[in-house]
Input
Amino acid sequence: MAGGGLEFAVAILLGVFAGQWLDRRWSTSPWLVVIGAMTGAGAGFYKLYRDLTASQRRPGADDASDDTER
Output
């Protein structure tokens, strides 16, 4: 879970760099940078959501809390 923030930042940066490259190629500045950043943020949020829901479904994920209740 510790790498989630880094993965989120990398997703945004990849979207920004792809948008910059396409803007330079097609002279559409700044629209594709903005779209790339939003797409990267959306992909980052989706990845974080999937990681969090997967960690909650794993058996034994909340065993530590069960020990304190006894």
